[in-house]
Amino acid sequence: MSPQYVNHLTALEQAIRTKPDNPAFKVPSENGGWRDISYQELWNDVVRLAVYYSSRLEQLGMKKRDVIGLCLQRAGYIPHLMSTYVKDLDLVQGLFQQSNAKTVICDTTRINGWEQLEPLGVKVIPILTHEEVAQITGSCSPVDLSVLPPLDEEVDGNDILSFEQSSGSSSGRPKLVPFSRRWVDANAQKCQIDERRTPVFIRSGSFCYVGQLLRAS
User: Fold this and answer.
1) In whole angstroms, what is the distance from residue 61 CA to residue 98 CA?
2) Could you tell me which CATH number the domain at 8-216 has?
3) Domain positions in the chain
4) Strands (E), the chain
5) How far apart are CA 208 and CA 61, in angstroms?
6) Overall pTM > 0.85
């Protein structure tokens, strides 16, 4: 049996078992101050959106572990995170070709010409609106978890967990950075013994870039 590798999904699952009501995020409220989002709320949103997109992508012929240009890992796909700050469509095309992405879920208003990805075999799906997300995550209807892969399934440590990108500060162009399950697990194990860490950290950039993602690990 292959070892159980730790990643952000298994860590979140463990959190809802041990501290479901603790805050996972603090987000600014409209009236000032901060609003807590608990681990249980976060998990519920992740699962409901994973079920929605799993059904949507299967209708397009996508298979589990296909590379998708958005964070849809709980639905069984490999996310390729792409910052909305990237405005060069040629750069986007190059990075998606390197990761062999099959679909991109994006804000089509950010860059003109997304339809140019279609001839390359990359299907384009517009992102959900705030109202659509609220409708899905706020629903009280039962969730069919059978469409989602189990988190404890046997995996290869060399399997790609996600694709991130470098900031591009050294070469002027972001580079594709694959994260394997073993590599993510090693970083998760390492951060558990870092006594310098505080309970709260401030996000200082996009999670699509390696530096910020490691800071949050």
Assistant:
1) 21
2) 3.40.50.12780
3) 8-216
4) 23-28, 34-38, 67-69, 78-79, 101-106, 123-126, 160-165, 176-180
5) 26
6) no
